[in-house]
């Protein structure tokens, strides 16, 4: 009895995801269709990658609201460089470096400046949205063809390329968090900063680097989004931070830090993606979709709380 | 005439996943008396008291208060039944003030739900005065020392007019003066007919303040005795199930070179002109009252605090230690006196807590942690320090207080530093395990490690130090060899009477 309960608690997000899939496929048979599934996975990848980066930040007890703006600016920069130089490598490299730099700024302000993460990233979110508007003059940068559109649209042995990128990001970060010293330090820092520091951990460095990781993840998502649409919009990614946080929370990670997992986050992102897709297939109006999504998050957190007692 | 107990807990059983914490335990408490509750770390003392105070629900057994059987539903219900408890782990809200904590859940309101702050502050002032505690009720709890927080917990528990008060290791963080004050209060409470249940690992305290004793071992009930009928040896053998000889196994030091030299070190007003040397193969005891700057000195050497003057040499080389990380790299380790705040990461496992300061050495190819090696070390030290845990993967929060302390100690022993600074190392640790820890320290000493031991436990300082430094108000007020040292001279230096 208690074994079953422990099992349910451990795999609650996964069980939730499976239950959701079952319910949706009963209601609409169009759900369980290989094309639809691949479509869902592709749509999930952008949020999943951002949410993985976000997980690092949240595991340390922080939050990163600036991911949507990082996505926009790195998408815009990638697009404009690609159009000018036609060098895919240059476009991608600069774009990711910009994401990393903004992450570093966030990290430095949080760790050295000792300002609350919410406030720091609220400010950089606003600033870099503005920077994107200035950079793009407020109009989308379009006309992205050729190699650039490969990233978002190509398939390799039938698997959409964004899904492959997500898988790679997942494997790397999973390794980082579960197999290396760095991962342990992230958990320890989120659990008790004083104990972590007094155990010889350079807590400032760890705090800075989680925002760096989040910035890079947002930039990668920015490239995928831009490539998929074939243009970089200055509004791209606005509100994405909330979907990412929702994925992290649905995956069982605690907002107060120290507890959670990357695997959970991926499942959380899938739950949101499947829910969106299912509601679309059922022709539910977007207004109601938003209500349903909110309720699902509340329900998940409430169930989690009850289990912990 | 046989006295009727006000509280009877009969055949109480309680299991957690993988652990049978209580296997049928009895406990009685009598009005106007203090019942000591004794047992090794993990024996089940805190669990039993958490059942009484409504934190946990019992699996089996019955509880009678004033002869009437009760089913305790929760914390509030226990309080209504007249039970209050001072928990082993502090449970104050650190971002609130003292008076807000004292009246938490019992706030005084005037009209229209408006809080009557002035009244609460006034009453808090009165309570604080009763304890000769000179501090503003509006002080934030996070600004207090551990000892002061403990005093607030005690004041909180005694202010509720309870019939039964449980004190789970109340003195671990108290100064001698504070402890004396606590005992005065306990005597007053006894006169008022309150029944007290008192948990402690300090034998002297038990004999000073308690009337009867109940002993648990491994979740079993061993017996209840009048304290006047049992001597210390008997009690210890009831607790550990065997005779314990020589509580302080001293071994003669084999002194080596100087490991650590501190020259004229200052830190603002907290530390003034501190100079001393620590040799390899030596245990240097640091005595002094709480607040005398001992912990500050330790943390300064460890790089957690910055010095404002002076020099530090490690193995003859001048060092600038800027962070705990630097210190560990120079071969210095520091065990904090405050395990919950500065030692543990509560939501991590025993294994991950123990390896936290030592991960570098498990790092293999691809920066991958060698988990087999990590586990092997953890199991070795779990055995060495007889840590009671259901598995290395148990969340450390679920260990008993003493066992948590052992894990943190293991973390630093595993680090195998050349200079080991330990701050109240045996806080909350039972008599049997204490001796094992002293043996381990002796072993380290024999290996040529230098050990600096801060302790408020006079017997411990006198029992295993090779040399003793006494601190008073941020200065070294005296230095004694093992032969010279005794309780009186240490106390004299500690309160600042020199010559
Ligand atoms: N919440 C919990 N989950 C799992 N095991 C627990 C939990 N609480 C206590 N235990 C286990 O129950 C046993 C008894 O613990 P308890 O805290 O009562 O010991 P104790 O006698 O108070 O020891 P100490 O002197 O170290 O404080 C221990 O083995 C402990 O690991
Ligand atoms: Mg206990």
Automatic annotation (TrEMBL), chain A:
The keyword Lyase does not apply. Keywords: Cell inner membrane, Cell membrane, Membrane, Transmembrane, Transmembrane helix, Transport. GO terms for cellular component: plasma membrane. The chain crosses the membrane at residues 12-31, 37-58, 65-83, 89-110, 117-136, 156-177, 210-230, 286-303. It is found in: Cell membrane. It is a multi-pass membrane protein. Its main location: membrane. Pfam families: BPD_transp_2 (PF02653). InterPro entries: ABC_transp_permease. One of its GO terms (molecular function) is transmembrane transporter activity. This is Ribose ABC transport system, permease protein RbsC (TC 3.A.1.2.1). It comes from Thermobrachium celere DSM 8682.
Automatic annotation (TrEMBL), chain B:
SUPFAM superfamilies: P-loop containing nucleoside triphosphate hydrolases. It comes from the Bacteria. GO terms for biological process: monosaccharide transmembrane transport. PROSITE patterns: ABC_TRANSPORTER_1 (PS00211), ABC_TRANSPORTER_2 (PS50893). Residues 7-243, 253-498 form the ABC transporter domain. Keywords: ATP-binding, Cell membrane, Membrane, Nucleotide-binding, Repeat, Sugar transport, Translocase, Transport. It is a peripheral membrane protein. One of its GO terms (molecular function) is ATP hydrolysis activity. It is found in: Cell inner membrane; Cell membrane. Transmembrane segments: none annotated. Its main location: membrane. GO terms for cellular component: plasma membrane. This is Ribose ABC transport system, ATP-binding protein RbsA (TC 3.A.1.2.1).
């Amino acid at each position: 009895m208690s074994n079953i309960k422990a099992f349910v608690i451990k795999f609650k997000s996964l069980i939730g995801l499976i239950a959701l899939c079952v319910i949706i496929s009963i209601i609409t048979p169009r759900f369980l269709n290989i094309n639809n599934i691949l479509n869902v996975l592709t749509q999930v990848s952008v949020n999943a990658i951002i949410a993985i980066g976000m997980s690092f930040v949240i595991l340390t007890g922080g939050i990163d609201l600036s991911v949507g703006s990082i996505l926009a600016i790195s998408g815009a920069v990638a697009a404009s460089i690609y159009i000018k130089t036609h060098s895919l490598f240059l476009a991608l490299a600069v774009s990711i470096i910009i994401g990393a730099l903004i992450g570093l700024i966030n990290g430095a302000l949080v760790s050295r400046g000792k300002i609350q993460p919410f406030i720091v990233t609220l400010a950089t979110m606003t600033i870099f949205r503005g920077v994107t508007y200035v950079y793009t003059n407020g109009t989308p940068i379009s006309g992205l063809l050729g190699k650039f559109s490969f990233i978002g649209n190509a398939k390799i042995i039938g698997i959409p390329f964004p899904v492959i990128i997500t898988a790679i990001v997942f494997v790397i970060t999973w390794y980082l968090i579960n197999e290396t010293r760095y991962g342990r330090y992230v958990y320890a820092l989120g659990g008790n900063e004083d104990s972590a520091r007094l155990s010889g951990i350079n807590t400032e460095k760890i705090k800075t680097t989680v925002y760096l990781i989040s910035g890079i993840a947002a930039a990668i998502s920015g490239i995928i989004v831009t490539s998929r649409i074939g243009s970089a919009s200055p509004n791209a990614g606005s509100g994405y931070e909330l979907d990412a946080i929702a994925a992290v929370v649905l995956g069982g990670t605690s907002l107060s830090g120290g507890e959670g997992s990357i695997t959970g986050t991926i499942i959380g992102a899938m739950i949101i993606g499947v829910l969106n897709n299912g509601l679309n297939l059922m022709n539910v109006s977007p207004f109601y979709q938003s209500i349903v999504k909110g309720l699902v998050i509340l329900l998940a957190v409430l169930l989690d709380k009850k289990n912990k007692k | 005439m046989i006295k009727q107990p006000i509280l009877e807990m009969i055949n109480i059983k309680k299991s957690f996943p993988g652990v049978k914490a209580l296997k049928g335990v009895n406990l009685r408490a009598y009005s106007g008396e203090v019942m000591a509750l004794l047992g090794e770390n993990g024996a089940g003392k805190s669990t039993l008291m958490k059942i009484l105070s409504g934190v946990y629900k019992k699996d089996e057994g019955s509880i009678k208060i004033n002869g009437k059987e009760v089913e305790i539903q929760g914390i509030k219900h226990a309080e209504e039944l007249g039970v209050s408890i001072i928990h082993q782990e502090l449970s104050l809200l650190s971002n609130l003030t003292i008076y807000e904590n004292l009246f938490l859940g019992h706030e005084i309101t005037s009209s229209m739900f408006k809080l009557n702050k002035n009244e609460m502050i006034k009453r808090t002032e009165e309570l604080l005065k009763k304890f000769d505690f000179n501090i503003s009720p509006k002080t934030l709890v996070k600004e207090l020392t551990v000892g002061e927080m403990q005093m607030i917990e005690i004041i909180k528990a005694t202010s509720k007019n309870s019939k039964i008060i449980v004190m789970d290791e109340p003195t671990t963080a108290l100064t001698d003066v504070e402890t004396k004050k606590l005992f005065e209060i306990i005597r007053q409470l006894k006169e008022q007919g309150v029944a007290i249940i008192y948990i402690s690992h300090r034998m002297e305290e038990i004999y000073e303040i308690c009337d009867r004793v109940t002993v648990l071992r491994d979740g079993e009930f061993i017996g209840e005795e009048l304290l006047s009928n049992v001597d210390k040896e008997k009690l210890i053998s009831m607790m550990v199930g065997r005779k314990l000889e020589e509580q302080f196994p001293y071994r003669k030091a084999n002194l080596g070179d100087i490991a650590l030299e501190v020259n004229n070190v200052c830190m603002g007003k907290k530390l003034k002109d501190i100079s001393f040397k620590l040799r390899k193969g030596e245990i240097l005891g640091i005595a002094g009252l709480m607040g005398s700057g001992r912990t500050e000195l330790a943390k300064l050497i460890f790089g957690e605090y910055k010095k404002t003057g002076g020099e530090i040499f490690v193995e003859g080389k001048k060092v600038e230690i800027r962070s705990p990380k630097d210190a560990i790299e120079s071969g210095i380790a520091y065990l904090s006196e405050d395990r919950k705040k500065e030692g543990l990461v509560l939501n991590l496992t025993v294994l991950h807590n123990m390896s936290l300061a030592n991960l570098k050495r498990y790092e293999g190819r691809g920066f991958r942690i060698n988990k087999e090696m990590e586990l092997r070390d953890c199991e070795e030290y779990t055995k060495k320090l007889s840590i009671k845990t259901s598995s290395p993967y148990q969340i450390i929060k679920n260990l008993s207080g003493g066992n948590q302390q052992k894990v943190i100690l293991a973390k630093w022993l595993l680090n195998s530093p050349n200079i080991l600074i330990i701050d109240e190392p045996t806080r909350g640790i039972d008599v049997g395990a204490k001796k094992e820890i002293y043996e381990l320290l002796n072993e380290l000493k024999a290996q040529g490690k230098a050990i600096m031991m801060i302790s408020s436990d006079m017997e411990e300082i006198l029992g295993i130090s090779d040399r003793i430094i006494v601190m008073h108000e941020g200065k070294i007020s005296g230095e004694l060899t093992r032969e010279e040292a005794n309780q009186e001279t240490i106390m004299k230096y500690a309160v600042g009477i020199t010559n």
